[in-house]
Design goal:
Length: 63
């Protein structure tokens, strides 16, 4: 599996975890923005940046 595919799989796993959390009725905006989910959001953003950069490199392979 390529690095990009591994990153995307991690993102999908994180999305599934968040959906489960959100649907449980335990969602707390404070936890999401400044509590325990803050690190989750930061990791997700890091993954999106990495995937975007890899996709940009592939799209601009001539540079």
């Amino acid at each position: 599996m390529s690095n990009k595919a591994e990153l995307i799989q991690e993102m999908l796993d994180m999305q599934a975890k968040f959906i489960k959390y959100e649907q449980s009725g335990e969602f707390d905006a404070e936890d999401y923005y400044v509590g325990e989910w803050k690190a989750y959001r930061e990791r997700y953003q890091e993954l999106t940046n990495q995937v975007r950069d890899l996709a940009s490199e592939e799209a601009n392979f001539w540079k």
